[in-house]
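Per reviewer request, we include the raw input and output of the structure prediction for the construct analysed in the revised manuscript.
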Amino acid sequence: MLRVAVVGSGPSGVYTAQSLVEQTRVPDVRVHVLDRLPCPYGLVRYGVAPDHEKIKSLQNNLRAVLEHERIGFVGNVEVGARGVTPARLLELYHAVVYCVGAARDRRLGVPGEELPGSYSATDFVSWYSAHPDAVGNGFGVALAARSAVVIGVGNVAVDVARILARGPEELHPTDVPQTALGALAQSRVRAVHMVGRRGPSQAKFTTKELRELGAMPGARVEVDPADLALDPAYADPAGLPAVNRRNVEVVRAWAADTAPDPRERVIRVRFFLRPVEVLERDGRAAGVRFERTLPDGTGGVRGTGAYEDIEARLVLRAVGYRGVPLEGLPFDASRGTVPHAAGRVLRDERPSPGEYVAGWIKRGPTGVIGTNRPCAKETAASLLDDAALLLRRPVADDPVAALRAWGLQPVEWPGWLSIEQAEAALGRTLGRSTVKIADWAGLLEAAGAPPR
């Protein structure tokens, strides 16, 4: 029997586990999918916006994999210096695949970025997605702002702009936690500026998400024609890749629509503006100073020396993710990934027996959810190629019992099912559908695990 631990229960981890148990090259592979949280599904649970029910339904597919007879979910297990180290994990399993994602947001690197009222979009998403680490981060106060700036033109920026512009009646049927729903219901934000340093033909959002902004019942979209005119591909997008072309067509339609629109909230989509400073007033963020940019002819932009200030008491940066080091594993700080060869972890440029990576920590934060499938299959193939060597090493007969003996309190699949039941019951008491439990104590109590 080949025993494998997969660290991380998001799509890359679940797809890796699936690849290992559905193949026929190596018989009787048993997989434990470990997670720091007592809940599975990673960013599908804690990163997909609550109003994206179709994408969130991917949890059903991940659930079917985790219920496979040769796969077990083992939550509330932290891997690293504060939990079980990579070296000790290899005492329990023949192989360990790290699918830990890219947990840190990229920084702007501008003055004022750390002011109160200036946040990463990652933190905002975690808050309205009920991530237990996000409790008490002050967004209720921040939403007293009348205007917000979202820096970035990818899908995360679109998500947070859309949530800021939603009315509470639109979020009530979702699983957004009650505290976040209450704060969003009291929000005074009426203008959301979504700003990118390049043009619409280079923006990273997908067209479906972009179109959603224009279909919101309580918010209108505005674009500045002067911004659009700076993009060489805007007038004739025919030569662009399909996604970029469709994005430009959506923006062109918005620019052409000059009919009066009585909707109370507005999302202003801006281009060719590069943030240079978060402005301060009374000790808090008061807006963002941008430098106007122009295309440089090579796909990038250059500064023009002309500046524009956008007033906002709430600033959210959504300029990408970055992997973070996991103590005990090698790390390439320049790339934000673990060095590897076809998924095999490299130590001193040589494969480290039994250690593998998949997902964002392997390739960087690129692609969509489906991109994780071929990535996971490549890593699983490398592991299976090594199976004869891996099976020579003795491992624990019962890894979960060993984790408990080391002082950890794993939450297994029945504990997760208890959390699901508790969240459904919470929703019923609030007159809503399922409502997420947003704190560690509540999750662990629902799972029947000892408190931290």
